[in-house]
Write a structure and sequence with these properties.
alpha+beta
């Protein structure tokens, strides 16, 4: 069995294949406070699109944090 899981914020993206040659099951799970609110089985196109969007949002949020910390701690640096 092969599993891939990526947790970003309140969503868990999972990709599971029971064995080589078997079809892939892609799911997106929404959680809040450790409680699963919704689990959707989606196509790989939807899964990869949604995961990509979540990764971009995560990267943008952290880039802003890094920039702010840089300005606060190294104000004389370009």
């Amino acid at each position: 069995m092969l599993d891939i899981a990526v947790r970003l914020g309140d969503r868990l993206f999972t990709w599971r294949r029971q064995a080589v040659g078997r079809p892939v099951t892609a799911q997106v799970r929404l959680e809040s406070g450790g409680v699963v609110l919704r689990t959707e089985t989606v196509g790989m196109d939807v899964w990869s699109h949604d995961l990509t969007q979540a990764l971009v949002q995560h990267a943008q949020a952290h880039a802003a944090t890094v920039e702010l910390l840089h300005r606060l701690t190294l104000p004389d640096q370009p």
